[in-house]
Amino acid sequence: MITIDHHIAKEESMHPKATGEFTSLLHDLALSIRIISREVRRAGINDILGFARTSNIHGEKQQKLDKYANEIIKKTMSQSGHVCAFASEEEEEIVMVGHNKKSKYIVLFDPLDGSSNIDVNITVGTIFGIYRRAENADDSVCDMKDILQPGYKLITAGYALYGSSTMMVYTTGNGVHSFTYDPTIGEFLLSQANIKIPKFGFYYSFNEGNYFLVEEKIRKYLDFIKTPSDDKKYPHILRYIATLNADLHRLLHYGGIYIYPANTKNPGGKLRLVYEVNPLAFILEQAGGRATDGSRRILEIVPDNIHQKTPLFMGSPDNMDVLESFISD
Ligand code: MN
Ligand code: MN
Q1: Is residue 68, in this structure, part of any structural domain at all?
Q2: For residue 14, how far is its CA from the centre of ligand 1 (angstroms)?
Q3: What pLDDT score does 311 carry?
Q4: Residue 73 to residues 30, 36, 97: CA-CA distances in angstroms?
């Protein structure tokens, strides 16, 4: 039995310049995830017991869960003093936190991914990524270049899933590891070390409702993967949850492909680069998969704003090869 705190400490100790800061940051993150998980688990019960959104007595419960999760992460992760800024899906602006030498980290997160699924009891999650601010950081507040770094500079990334069990999956660039929460002892226990995506998978995830809104070359690819083949690789099987990190989680285990291309409704794509796509692309690459925006590796894109959107194509290496034979010019 390996607890997540154990695992994180061991990961950090393998770095020559380990200070323990990182361990405390990830420890705080795991704590936020436990708290969010508790609230997600009670969401249905709260409705039954009359914690209605209109109730004044339970003011806290009026908040939508994604706002609540946002507050939890900010509060929990500010405590250590190691965070200089947050960028969150729920915050229009960057949230500045610490401004001394100790505050060396930028934390990006989507507090509740797939939040439209919460009311119908379908898996939701939390996505996070952490950057170290620029080497020459002094006592000043961190600036935009500390925050708008390309994804390959992430020092850690991960996600939590509030599904049939609560899980936390993370990487520090040394493989992808998953932990399952055991509520009876209040610990995340290692469930799988070094997750690797299959080289090829039979599944695809795409919002088929957008079929006529995407470019023709993408429709041709979709037609191809739906056409029966003698080698039985096709037709692919469609699976689509619409909680991005739940779709990624299945992709990691079963392989295949996930696409959210630009379409006529969302010409720049719909998913957010900084706090949704980058952390998941880092995880996926660590597991042996690939993620692109159709032409560029996701992790090499330099964002110019925290809420920037991107098209996304990600999956098993062999599936990505097939896709690219259709979409690259
Ligand atoms: Mn999201
Ligand atoms: Mn969200």
Answers
A1: yes
A2: 32
A3: 98
A4: 10, 9, 13
